[in-house]
Write a structure and sequence with these properties.
By secondary structure, the protein is an alpha/beta fold. It has one domain: Rossmann fold, CATH 3.40.50. The protein has six helices and six strands. It has a six-stranded mixed beta sheet, sandwiched between helices. Strand 2, helix 3 and strand 3 form a beta-alpha-beta unit. The longest helix has 18 residues. The radius of gyration is 17 Å and the shape is globular. The N and C termini lie far apart (37 Å). The relative contact order is 0.23. One of its GO terms (biological process) is negative regulation of glycolytic process.
Length: 195
């Protein structure tokens, strides 16, 4: 079995504005870079074997900062991209209500179905678990992809909004997924400062 750490990317301007990012290629803001540096400091003394990442800028930038801290190159996998948001990408909740009404979630706006997100996320995790037995793997992705995949694998764990640069650790033992750490952002309380 592999030990897999699921990491949500650092914060972006669109996160702060409440805009749906989806597959839009949005970069980290300065706070997001700082969050990634704090997480990198947290994991820098740990023994990680590989880093996989979404190729979207916000995840890619987070993964590079982590990879630099532990001396690993990034491997990209398109299955780790965020849920496609269709027509809602770039909009806030108020803008969606103004444009499509209160029931905009019930309209066909080109949003990727949750089941499809779960399918590609779980396919990736199952493959990594088999490919990297006995290794510790970092996976940098996005809130919806991580949450929907996690909820499918561990439906008994209450849903929480994943914090930016949160780390969630999962393992598959005796054909059953389990978690030892969920949505942990304790590194954001660190007083570490980069030289």
């Amino acid at each position: 079995m592999a030990t897999i750490a699921l990491v949500r990317h650092g914060t972006t301007d669109w996160n702060k504005e409440g805009r749906a990012q989806g597959s839009s290629d949005i970069s980290l803001d300065q706070e997001g870079i700082h969050q990634a540096l704090l997480l990198a400091h947290r994991i820098s003394s740990e023994d990680w074997g590989h880093i996989y990442s979404s190729s979207l800028a916000r995840a890619h930038q987070t993964a590079i900062i982590l990879g630099n801290a532990i001396g690993l190159d990034i491997k990209f996998d398109n299955r780790l991209k965020e849920r496609r948001g269709g027509q809602i990408e770039g909009t806030t909740e108020n803008e969606r209500i103004n444009k499509w009404g209160e029931n905009w979630r019930n309209l066909d706006l080109g949003i990727e179905p949750i089941e499809d997100v779960q399918k590609r996320g779980i396919n990736f995790l199952e493959e990594i678990n088999l490919k990297h037995k006995g290794e510790k793997i970092l996976v940098v992705s996005h809130g919806a992809l991580i949450q929907y995949s996690f909820n499918k694998l561990l439906p008994h764990i209450p849903i929480k909004h994943l914090g930016n640069t949160s780390i969630t650790i999962i393992e598959k033992i005796d054909n059953q997924w389990s978690t030892e750490l969920y949505n942990c952002t304790k590194h954001l309380l660190s007083t570490f400062k980069e030289d």
